[in-house]
Write a structure and sequence with these properties.
With 148 residues, the chain is of the alpha+beta class. The protein is built from five helices and seven strands. The radius of gyration is 20 Å and the shape is globular.
Length: 148
């Protein structure tokens, strides 16, 4: 499964491919919003542009889904490495800087460290589900019923 490295927070989070970056950050308690975003945001519709993040490293190109039409419109005057977390789905391991507009210079050392440390492989094999207890008994019971 892909790993999202939140550089500012110094955290790595494992997630299934296709996970929405905004939802993952909020679920994990990562502070995604600055003051304006905390006071009011669009709830993930891509209209307020308060959930942007900077992609500082990718295991391979395309770690996040391609820019959406909303992002192309809303981020046209922002750096190319910025994404709206609400519009990006995680495909492979990636390192992101939350709130890149706030104190980015103070984060240079953390960004350099995140870029220097290789990201884990993005698509590790999914673990095999363990059989539920009693599942074998249910199969045997069904076979016995068929015999009657």
């Amino acid at each position: 499964m892909p790993v999202v490295r939140f550089v500012r927070e110094g955290r790595e989070v494992l997630c299934p491919p296709g996970t929405n970056l905004r939802e993952l950050a909020l679920q994990e308690g990562v502070e995604l919003y600055g003051l304006k975003g905390r006071l009011g945001n669009c709830g993930g519709c891509g209209q307020c542009i308060t959930c942007f993040v900077e992609v500082v490293a990718e295991r391979q190109e395309g770690a996040l889904t391609p820019l959406t039409a909303v992002e192309q419109q809303k981020l046209r005057r922002r750096p190319e490495s910025w994404r709206l977390a609400c519009q990006a789905l995680v495909q492979e391991s990636v390192a992101v800087l939350t709130r890149p507009q706030a104190g980015r210079d103070a984060q240079k050392q953390a960004i350099a460290a995140a870029q220097a440390e290789p990201l884990p492989e993005g698509r590790m094999p999914e673990p095999e589900p363990e059989p539920e207890e009693g599942a074998d008994e249910a199969v045997e019971t069904e076979a016995e019923s068929d015999e009657l």
